[in-house]
Amino acid sequence: MKRTILITAGTGNIGSELTALLASNPQVKEVRVGTRNPEASKSKLLKDFNKGIVKPVKFDLEDSQSIIEAVKGVDSLCLITPLSDTMVEYQETVIQEAKKQGVDYIVKVSVDVASPEAQEGPGAAHWAGEENIRGANIKATMLRPTIFMQHLLIVPGVYEKGDDTFYLPTGDGKMALLDCRDIALATAALLTDPSKSDLLDEDYFMLTGPETLTAEEIKQELSKLSKDKPFAHEASEEAFIQHSNKTNSPLELKGVYEAGKNGAFSTTYTSTFEKMTGKRPNSFARFAWDHRYYFQ
Ligand SMILES: NC(=O)c1ccc[n+]([C@@H]2O[C@H](COP(=O)([O-])OP(=O)(O)OC[C@H]3O[C@@H](n4cnc5c(N)ncnc54)[C@H](OP(=O)(O)O)[C@@H]3O)[C@@H](O)[C@H]2O)c1
C-alpha cells in the first residue's frame, strides 16, 4: 500500500533529509512536511524535491486546527520534537490526534538518554513522549540517536563556516558521533514498511556512528580536507564559552560536551540500523567529505 506520511518539524536537520528520501520513494503517496510556515522558502524548496508528492503543511502547537488538518488521512507519522520548553505538550498533542484519527504507525525520534530515571531535560521529555505513545497503544518504533556530527554545522559556538578552528571541550572522550542523515534513512525504511519493526526485540533501538573518535581525531579528519593547512582545535572549556558568547550560541551544550569528555558517547550501536537499512552508518570522514565546501 502506498502511504501518506507526515513529518513533524519537517523542515529541520532530520526532517529535510527524510523528506528528500521519501520524495523519491515509489512506495510513498504523499509526504506532508509539518512546519509553522508552509510559505517559507525552506518549505517551498522541500516541496520542489517532488512537487507531486511533497506538501508542506501548517503544523503549529499554537494552532490546534492546523494539527487536526495535518494528521487527517495520514498512515504513518514521523514524530520529531523541536527542542523547546513545550516538548512534552507538543508530543502529547500530536499523539492524541494520531490516536483519534487512526494513524497506524509512528516512528518517534527520541534520544539516547531517554529513560524512566531521567529527571529533566531532553531525556525526561523524550521518555514522556515514548510512554505517551505506548499508552495510546499505537504501533511505534522509538529511535534513540546519540549526539550528531551536525553540531559542526549547526552550533556556531563549535564551528562557523569557513573557519580553520573548531571549539569542542570534550578532552580525550571518545565519541560515536552520528550523521543525523542516518536517522532519516532508518526512519524512511520503517515508515514505508512498518513490518521492518518486527526485526526488533523491543519497541526502541539506539543508533550511533560506526566508530568512536576524540576531538583531536576529528581534527585530523577535517585536516585531510585541506591541502594547505591543518585544522586547529581549541579544547578548553573557557575557549568554548568565549566563542559561544561571541557567536550567540547556546551554552547549555557545555553539559553535553562534558558528558562526552566523561565517556557518555563511547559505545557504538549500529547492528539494528544495519539490519533495517542494509547499510553501515556514515563515518565521520564521509560526513566531512560530503560537507567539504562548508569546512574549506
Ligand atoms: N542535536 C543532537 O545532537 C541530537 C541528538 C539526539 C537527539 N536529538 C533530538 O533531535 C530532535 C531535533 O531534531 P532536528 O535537529 O531535526 O530539529 P531542528 O532542525 O532543530 O528543528 C526542526 C524544526 O522544528 C521547528 N521548530 C524549531 N523550534 C520550534 C519551536 N520552538 N516550536 C515549534 N517548532 C519549532 C522548525 O521548523 P519551522 O520553523 O519550519 O516550523 C525547525 O526546522 C530533538 O528532539 C532532539 O532532542 C538531537
The structure class reads alpha/beta
CATH superfamily of one domain: NAD(P)-binding Rossmann-like Domain
What's the story with the biggest beta sheet? 7 strands, parallel
CATH class of one domain: Alpha Beta
Average residue-wise pLDDT = 97
Helical content (DSSP H or I, runs of 4+): 25-40%
Radius of gyration (Å): 19 Å
- Strand order in the sheet with the most strands: 3-2-1-4-5-6-8
CATH topology of one domain: Rossmann fold
Q: Distance between termini?
A: 45 Å
How large is the share of residues in beta strands? Answer: 5-15%
Give a topology summary.
Layout: E1 3-7, H1 13-23, E2 28-35, H2 41-47, E3 54-58, H3 64-71, E4 76-79, H4 87-100, E5 105-109, H5 121-136, E6 140-145, H6 151-154, E7 165-167, H7 181-192, E8 204-207, H8 215-223, E9 232-234, H9 237-246, H10 253-261, H11 271-277, H12 284-290, H13 292-295
Helix pairs in contact: 1-7, 4-5
Can you describe this structure?
By secondary structure, this protein is of the alpha/beta class. It has a domain of 143 residues: Rossmann fold. The chain is built from 13 helices and nine strands. The chain has a seven-stranded parallel β-sheet with strand order 3-2-1-4-5-6-8, with helices on both faces. A two-stranded parallel ribbon has the order 7-9. The protein starts with a strand and ends with a helix. It binds NADP nicotinamide-adenine-dinucleotide phosphate. NADP nicotinamide-adenine-dinucleotide phosphate (NAP) binds next to α1.
